[in-house]
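Risk mitigation, structural track. In case the binding assays with magnesium ion fail to produce interpretable data, a predicted complex structure has been prepared as a fallback.
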Amino acid sequence: MASVHYTCLMIIAPTSENISIAGRALREGSIVAIPTETVYGLAGRIDSEEALRTIFAVKGRPADNPLIVHVATVAQAHALILATERSIVDLLAAAFWPGPLTIVLRKAPGLSDQITAGLDTVAIRMPSHPIALEVIKAAGSPLAAPSANRSGRPSPTMAVHVENDLGNSIVILDGGPCEIGIESTVVRALADNLLILRPGVISAEALASATGMQVSDPTGAEPLRASPGTRYRHYSPNAAIQIALTVDAALEAVRVHGANTMVLAPPMYLGRFIGCFTGSLTEHDLYAELRRSDDLHVDRIVVLCDDSLARQPALLNRVRKAAGEGNEEDAGT
Ligand code: AMP
Ligand code: MG
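Fallback model:
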């Protein structure tokens, strides 16, 4: 008799029934991959030590890299932090939540050390994606949710990226491509100033003008230096990444390295690279293009970072990390 093969479909549509199923699974200590407006997250309840352990194990994430807690209400955020921190979270939440801003604040007692990696602070964000908010409500608790990739891989911006990295044993709610495509801005909120720990689409200028506070941005765009053929640890595809500062330098790199090279460039330049594998260098597309480079089996990616990128510090930061620069600043997994 012919055997029957069942396909395990773990990418599921975000119907209200499936969101309830995801909520029930989370309440029982399972983990679920969810869409957010930044990247897909691998979510577990903050009070489930088992779920938190599974998140670290499935991602292969180092235990000393703390998790971001995702909330659906400001009241949930208040419960996670010292009472003295409430006014600053209220100020930032009024301007930027729900949205791609993660706020690091002094934590209330009782939060799992798995979330905070033993620090006395906790990172909190209210995502704007309606499915993420519905899942948090259905789970009945804030959710710890790092990006849903294997550690060191580019963050997932589509459900299929999660499946490619984590296999078919994780339920993935499919929210389509993420609207933003790179991770949130992470900011440490101190009494009278803000310190950007990771750049994102919410800029230092936007933070300063919304709060009137001084904003330090040690992650901001310094002058670029070329990074020929460097290997890398974060956001990394299989190919080596080389940064070119001009169209001519990118063309020269393609000429030297040959047909198995892919060029990532701002969309306005792509016409200059006809005949090469090309991809669009934008915040929205970067991670998907890095993953596509694996499918194309290219052995080198030339990333054209000319002056037009000067006002996109978050994109430059991710390109540099992919190219192996400054990895000591951020585990970024
Ligand atoms: P991911 O969830 O993979 O996007 O990464 C979360 C980012 O938030 C990492 O860069 C963490 O180092 C950072 N993070 C989380 N919690 C804290 C914290 N308490 N203090 C400083 N950074 C944090
Ligand atoms: Mg990550």
